[in-house]
Design goal:
Strand order of the largest sheet: 1-2
Number of domains: 1
Structural class: mainly alpha
CATH architecture: Up-down Bundle
Radius of gyration: 18 Å
Helix content: 55-70%
CATH class: Mainly Alpha
Number of helices: 8
Strand content: under 5%
């Protein structure tokens, strides 16, 4: 079985599992789909999963890999599982929730925007986008388009998706989980930057000097 087929299978299964956790947390299909905003979030989740099947994302260690950074993968997995269930569950029991339907719709909007921002760079990078911190064969530095001013737009998209998901359930706990995601995310960013600096030297240093890591004008 080719890795692309494995990743496609994983994308479908993980997406369905994520939605199942949320539906379970909120109390079932009727409770979940009684909110138009959550219907939109569910559809957006499925669309993103299908779109990911047309990318060239991989798990190749390429020519060089920082294996010490692999710990972030299970960390993301644990936080992801908690995020799938807890925001919906706290919404159901009305624990540390805020706002009303307006907050839910804001969350749905952020979820869609974050999804687009997450996937766009994946299509731009093609085979160079790996789930591992690695330099791929023929790797070149991309500093134009969506990467002109922001070095990690896909990671920013991940954070926006997380905030959108939390707000769709009006969940303070969900926002805390988004904040916790920053720990492995920043560790991965620093690992990637060290590898790219070693690979591209002054070219990467010059790019860093004129761009932002994650949030324009802030970080």
């Amino acid at each position: 079985m080719k890795i692309s087929v494995k990743l496609a299978f994983f994308a479908v299964v993980s997406t369905l599992a994520y939605l199942t956790l949320a539906i379970w947390g909120l109390g079932g299909f009727a409770a979940f789909f009684s909110h138009g905003s959550l219907v939109v979030v569910a559809l957006a989740t499925l669309i993103m999963a299908v779109a990911s099947l047309f990318t060239e994302v991989n798990l190749s260690s390429g020519e060089r890999e920082d294996r010490d950074n692999r710990w972030v993968i299970p960390a993301f997995g644990v936080i992801g599982l908690l995020s799938g269930f807890l925001p919906a569950y706290t919404d159901r029991i009305d624990f540390w929730t805020f706002g009303g339907e307006g907050v839910r719709w804001l969350g749905a909007l952020l979820f869609i925007v974050g999804g687009a921002l997450r996937l766009w760079p994946v299509f731009v990078l093609g085979k160079r986008f790996s789930g591992l911190v690695a330099i791929q064969p023929g790797h070149r530095l991309v500093t134009e388009g969506i990467y002109r001013n922001l070095r990690n737009p896909s990671y920013l998209g991940m954070m926006v998706i997380g905030m959108g998901w939390a707000l769709a359930f009006r969940s303070g706990v969900g926002l805390i989980l988004v904040a916790l995601t920053l720990i492995p995310l920043i560790a991965r960013i620093h690992s990637e930057e060290a590898l790219l600096r070693a690979q591209f030297g002054s070219e990467y240093e010059a790019y860093c000097a004129r761009s932002w890591r994650l949030i324009p004008k802030i970080y």
